[in-house]
C-alpha cells in the first residue's frame, strides 16, 4: 500500500493518483514539500502531546501536602481538618467520606535514639483488650523500612486502624488511618505511603 503524501489516504501500490485528493503519487515531492510535511507532522505530534498531558492532568486525582518537614500526595476527596482534640505530636489530620468517614492522623516526635524495633514493640504493647491485631509487616516509606500494624477496635462504635510507623533522622513518624473498612481506602493509603517524603 502507498500512502498519499498530501492527505494520508491509503492507495494501491500501482496507483498513479490518490483516490481521495487526486495527488500524483508517482512524482517525487520537492524538498520544500518534504520540509512542510515534516513541520505538519511535528505540529500534529506536539498537539497530541499537549492533549495527552491535559487529559492526564484532568485524571490526576491527587493534592499535595507539604509543611516543610513532610510532603506527600493524597487523593483530592480527602480534606485537611483540625481535630477537636489537641495532641502536640500530631502535625496533620485528614478525613474523607470513603470507608464511612475515614481519618488520617500524622504524628512526629523525637525518637530519642530508639530504632524501629523499639517503637514497633511500644505500638503493639499499647493495643488494648478492645483491639485485635489483624496483620502486621514491613513497609517501605520515605526511603526506609517502616512497619505496618492493622487491627480492629470495638470502642467508639468499632472500626479498623492501620498504623504505619518508621524512624528516620532520629524522628519517629506515625501515620494512623482509621476507618470502617481498610479495603475501601487501601489505594488511598498506597498513594500516601508511596509518595511520603521527609526533609
Question: Can you describe this structure?
Answer:
The structure is a single chain. The chain has about 200 residues and is α+β, with helices and mostly antiparallel strands. It folds into two domains: about 1-60, no CATH class; about 60-199, Mog1/PsbP, alpha/beta/alpha sandwich (Protein Transport Mog1p, Chain A, 3-Layer(aba) Sandwich), CATH 3.40.1000. It is about 30% helix and about 40% strand. The protein contains four helices and twelve strands. The strands form three sheets. A seven-stranded antiparallel β-sheet has the order 5-6-7-11-10-9-8, sandwiched between helices. It has a three-stranded antiparallel β-sheet with strand order 3-4-12. It is elongated and about 85 Å long. The protein starts with a strand and ends with a strand. The mean pLDDT is about 90.
What's this entry about, in short?
The protein is an alpha+beta fold. The chain is built from 4 helices and 12 strands, in the order E-E-H-E-E-E-E-H-E-H-E-E-E-E-H-E.
Low-confidence stretches: none
The gyration radius over C-alpha positions equals 28 Å
Question: How many alpha or pi helices?
Answer: 4
Please tell me what the overall shape is: elongated
Q: Percent of residues in beta strands? A: 35-45%
Distance between the termini: 59 Å
Query: Superfamily at the CATH H level of the largest domain?
Result: Mog1/PsbP, alpha/beta/alpha sandwich
Biggest sheet features:
7 strands, antiparallel
Which CATH-level-2 architecture of the largest domain? 3-Layer(aba) Sandwich
Total strand segments: 12
The largest beta-sheet arranges its strands as 5-6-7-11-10-9-8
